């Protein structure tokens, strides 16, 4: 009977796990709807802003803007977007693996990591790669609890200032781009310096009148484009996190349901075998007394 008691305990434990994973799935689904609406509304604006930047920079000669300067590329800043919580499948581990891959493939460069999220920070906190906490806005870990454009501006201005002061030569942003609830694409894109945008064949060669002039407008557009780009990455990562967690909790609930069925079947078989054994003992005893 002790064996049956252990099985009953395991079934109760699995049922409790099912309740937790099911509740987490519903919470992530609710948050995902809001996050998905935010990123889908942001993408057309970011695309149109990039088209404006393309048009303005298409006829501006040179690349002498401070944020477009090219250095030797030895000092590299990796901006890594992760979550503060786990239970979201490979969402955080993919970002961590990408960081390690980049560092291993280019060992001659000096890397620093700017973690936006607790999971990446915990993964590299014992290394010397996280050494620029001054770039982090206040209450960095609370970013995902109250995601806002103001936070993006605060973070980007510190990164821009560090780049202009030659603290870093290059900067890359690593995050998960939201495709749908089940698919998140890992993105590793260059953030600084800003690459000069060349006019494509699809763009029109319309001659616009700019006031005050194209150079001054471009000087304002580039920092704003970085703010929008970073904020879009935050929204992408936020939606991807909840999509990944919802999918992971859905699979966990299904696995727990299957495990409960197997344990229940095993419990019923063991209980039936125990009852049969007891009946046989009683019959054998009765026959012995009668004989």
Can you walk me through this structure?
The protein has a four-stranded mixed β-sheet. Residues 200-204 have low confidence and may be disordered. Strand 1, helix 2 (91-105) and strand 2 (110-116) form a beta-alpha-beta unit. Helix 1 packs antiparallel against helix 5 (214-290) and helix 4 crosses helix 5 (214-290). It has helices at residues 2-57, 91-105, 118-124, 149-164, 214-290, and strands at 75-81, 110-116, 170-180, 183-192. It has five helices and four strands, in the order αβαβααββα.
For the structure shown, list the relevant keywords:
alpha/beta, four-stranded mixed β-sheet, Pyruvate Kinase, Chain: A, domain 1, 291 residues, 59% helix
Low-confidence stretches: 200-204
Radius of gyration: 28 Å
CATH architecture: 3-Layer(aba) Sandwich
What portion of residues belong to β-strands? 5-15%
Estimate the global geometry from the Cα principal axes. Answer: elongated
Helix segment count? 5
Helical residue percent band:
55-70%
How many separate domains make up the residues? 1
How does the helix and strand content classify structurally? alpha/beta
Q: Strand-and-helix sequence, N→C? A: HEHEHHEEH
Strand arrangement across the biggest beta sheet = 2-1-3-4
CATH C-level class: Alpha Beta
Q: Please identify which CATH superfamily we are dealing with.
A: ATP synthase, F1 complex, gamma subunit
Characterize the largest beta sheet: strand count, sense, and whether it forms a barrel.
4 strands, mixed
CA(first)-CA(last) distance: 31 Å
The whole-number mean of residue pLDDT values reads: 83
What is the strand tally?
4
The CATH topology is Pyruvate Kinase, Chain: A, domain 1
